[in-house]
Structure formats: C-alpha cells, structure tokens
Design a protein that fits this description.
By secondary structure, the protein is mostly helical. The protein has two domains: 133 residues, no CATH class; 71 residues, no CATH class. The chain contains twelve helices and two strands; from the N terminus they run H-H-H-E-H-H-H-H-E-H-H-H-H-H. A two-stranded parallel ribbon has the order 1-2. Helix 9 packs parallel to helix 12.
C-alpha cells in the first residue's frame, strides 16, 4: 500500500513548484519612462550649456564687431568696389550687430558646442566606440572651421558673379540682406564639411562598412554634386566644382580611413 504521508507530500511539492513558477517577478522593461525622461533632461542640460557658451562667446565677439565687419564685408567691396550698403529700417544696424556677435560667438565656442553634442550621444556608445570621442570631436572642430574658411575664400567669386549679371545695375545692397546671405553661406559650408566625421562614426559603430562605401561611390558623387549645387548660390560650374571636388575627396579619404584604421 502507498504511504499516506507520501501522497500528502507529493501535491505539496508540486504546488510549491507551480507556485514558484506562477509568482516569478515580471521582467523589467528595457527602456522605462524614467530613462526617457532622464535622456530628455540630459538633452536639456546640454542645450543649456551650448546656449550659455554661445552667449559668452557672443559677448566677446561683440567687442570685436568692427573687426569682424571688416572681414565679412571685404568680399563685397572686392567684388563691387564702387558700391556700398544701406539700411532702410531703424533697427536694421542693431540686428546686424547681433548677428555678427552671435556668429562670432558660434565660431569661438564651436569646440564647446560640438563637444556637448557628442557628449549627449556618448553614453549610448560602447567602450570601443568611445575611444574615438576626442579624435572625432577634434575632427569636427577642424572641419567646421575649415569649411567656414573655405566658404569665405569662395565668397568673393560668388558675389562677383551674382552682382555682375547686369552691369548697369547699382548694387547698393541692404545691410541686413547681405549679412543674412553671407552668414548662411558660411554656416552651410561649415556644416557641409562635417559629413566625413559622421560617416566615420557610422562605420565605427558598425552601421556602414568600407565595402558599402565602395559600392556607393556613384551615389556619393550624385549626392555631393546636388549638395554643392544647393549650398553654392551662384550656379556657375566653377564655384560648384570648387565645393564638390573637396567634398568628394573627403568621402574618399573617409573610405580609406575606415578600411585601413577600422578594418571594416
């Protein structure tokens, strides 16, 4: 006969196992609302630091406004020496002064701005990817400033073409319109020169490989030409080529860096 104690003991053990399986704590979600709020809070602080840095840089640039004006207006006077600027609104000169100050502040604090942007995405990277942090931030700064300088070199030719279409027209430009054009032009060149760094970072993160970059050369040429055409306002083939050729060369340099350094 079966021992009654064994009969009683069996169900208790089974119930214990079933109960332990049925009352297991639920798995924690991989991304909780608190972590999203933490990311947003981190982004807010990064933006605040960027804003403070630019304001401090703008205050410094404000005291050198006349010097910066001479630099930014030189391409216009070289293109059309007999023409001048005019202001038709009471606050136009003040508005231009603020634009000069903030643009100068952005140039001065570009290392801080670019570092804060990189620092925001840095926690999402692996240890291997983080080792590229300082080289990438340094490259971002050098390429942005190099792009602004390269745009400034091309600016006189662009203005000479645009202001020389009708020789009989007196090109006395509005001060605000000129600075809106020039500052957007220089900023666009600076941003355009950043794309190799993001391409290299994408390769370091395993998003693209050198094989994919090699297969995409034709698309790279097309994208570079379209981008150069959008950035350069003149429309003449020489200015477009002057931007498109360096951009494509940077694509090729990035390809070889990915292939030889990252070995991907």
């Amino acid at each position: 006969m079966t021992d009654p104690q064994e009969i009683d003991r069996g169900p208790e053990e089974g119930d214990s196992d079933a109960g332990s399986q049925g009352h297991r704590p639920p798995l924690e979600p991989t991304d909780s609302p608190q972590s999203i709020l933490a990311h947003l809070d981190e982004l807010r602080w990064r933006i605040l630091k960027i804003g403070i840095a630019i304001i401090v840089g703008a205050v410094v640039a404000f005291f050198f406004a006349d010097f910066l004006r001479g630099i930014l207006e030189a391409p216009f006077h070289n293109a059309v020496p007999d023409n001048t600027f005019q202001a038709l609104k009471p606050g136009e000169e003040w508005g231009v002064l603020m634009r000069i100050a903030f643009f100068g502040g952005l140039i001065l604090t570009s290392p801080v701005v670019l570092y804060q942007l990189w620092a925001f995405i840095n926690p999402a990277l692996t240890g291997t990817e983080r080792k590229w942090a300082f080289p990438i931030v340094g490259a971002l700064v050098v390429l942005f400033l190099g792009g602004v300088l390269f745009g400034y070199v091309l600016l006189p030719r662009g203005l000479e073409f645009l202001l020389g279409i009708f020789p009989d027209v007196q090109n006395d430009l509005l001060l605000g319109d000129y600075y809106s054009f020039v500052l957007r032009f220089l900023f666009a060149f600076g941003v355009a020169f950043l794309f190799p760094v993001f391409l290299f970072a994408a390769a370091a993160a395993g998003i693209v490989s050198s094989q994919q970059l090699a297969r995409g050369r034709r698309w790279a040429v097309l994208i570079v030409v379209i981008g150069a055409a959008l950035i350069t306002p003149t429309g003449d083939i020489l200015t477009l080529a002057a931007l498109a050729v360096p951009l494509y060369l940077m694509f090729e340099i990035t390809y070889w860096l990915v292939r030889l350094i990252l070995k991907k």
